[in-house]
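BUG-278 | component: ligand-complex export | severity: low

The export step for NAP jobs runs without errors, but we want the raw record kept on the ticket for reference. Input record follows.
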Amino acid sequence: MAAIKLDGTALARQLKEEIRQEAAQLERRPGLAVILVGDDPASQVYVRGKERDCQECGFYSEKYALPASTTQEELLDLVEVLNQREDIDGILLQLPLPKGLDPTPVLEAIRPDKDVDCFHPENVGRLTLGQARFLPCTPGGVMYMLEQYGIEVAGKSCVVLGRSNIVGKPMSLLLLQKDGTVTTAHSRTSDVAQLCAQADILVSAVGQVGLITKEMVKEGAVVVDVAMNQDENGKLCGDVCQEEVAQRAGYLTPVPGGVGPMTRAMLMRNTLQAAKKR
Ligand code: NAP
């Protein structure tokens, strides 16, 4: 039997509509500022998507498209101005930054209550303590999906492939907080295939085309493909061999149309939350 598709596109549409309705009740529109430095084409596409999401949710948005020659000080100055602005609830620094610019001090300069990407050490600390102010967008989007499809995490064996600060680590934390028994695998993990084959919930966030084959998936497992790769024809794909894994998994996220749209919707949710709290 083919796996049930975890439809991120439909869920994100529904969530953004709920956000739009809630935002319309506020005295002031939520405001998001997006800072883009340099001319990385993928980043430009992501930023355009975020602007579109803001429009759909009825948010105010501002884009700062800065040249690659921008200095660290100029970036910090801009963040300081945005920190003080009453009409800006969320500040997002689009990564990666061009060579020569260090993202860490800039991310740390963003006011924690405007850090809607959840990268500030204070917010990461709060997340770790189970006192999250915002959920990091990608893992938060995955958790939202699981919840909406009625997928129970408690007591399940969860395997997360990847340990980045953006995806793998917070993903493992959120699953743990929902009482999953979590194993975080990485490039030094031995016998990843065997580990995966025992998972009730498998989340792959590696960035390697064709990594997850049918043999690595337990019958009926929930398989979440976070990765965004390009196949040999330049087409967007994840880590999972979708066709064959769909024959064995119980649930599967498509790529595109799975985790990606949920990530974007969660950014809108965080911005709404930031606006409501301020
Ligand atoms: P990253 O920083 O490159 O991390 C990749 C992780 O995979 C690392 O922790 C690495 O281990 C681990 N790894 C490498 N080979 C492995 C293997 N064979 N088995 C298990 N783990 C392995 O990437 P990222 O930023 O976390 O992103 C991961 C993927 O998700 C990328 O394709 C990215 O484009 C995508 N992504 C998607 C969204 C979305 O909205 N859908 C959002 C963010 C990222 P080491 O730590 O040992 O190197």
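Assignee comment: Attached the raw record above. The longest strand covers residues 31-37.
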